[in-house]
Amino acid sequence: xxxxxxxxxxxxxxxxxxxxxxxxxxxxxxxxxxxxxxxxxxxxxxxxxxxxxxxxxxxxxxxxxxxxxxxxxxxxxxxxxxxxxxxxxxxxxxxxxxxxxxxxxxxxxxxxxxxxxxxxxxxxxxxxxxxxxxxxxxxxxxxxxxxxxxxxxxxxxxxxxxxxxxxxxxxxxxxxxxxxxxxx
Length: 184
Prior knowledge:
The chain is an alpha/beta fold.
């Protein structure tokens, strides 16, 4: 793989409300659809050897008509009991909670998400050329950490806005961030 283009899905009602959205299949808002179109236009002329999307509607709709393969390993974090809750609501039950440190009760741990990221990276690193992935905020942050050789918990260091573009590649054969959280 030469470069990995990370495309986070557009806005949904739950992203606007700050609700953790893992398993729930929420559609894009009208603004999210516009964001998705803009993101696709930014990358449409890039030569991709492969494009992958999460099976969730918000990621698929952001990917649009770009030819892609669906991969369940790149779904968002399973928030378990915290699905649909905001961080403020969770902090009332579990003060100081952080998804990257604590994971989700009856959902996934950081290590679980890291294992999915590792499987996906193993799959794509042998692909020649550029690869794009349409996925979700927390998952893409863990994927980035693992690509850089960091523990899954270090995904907390990488803020990622809706409909943003990130590019991972290499500097002197070392994994590196080329572009991060770019929203135009």
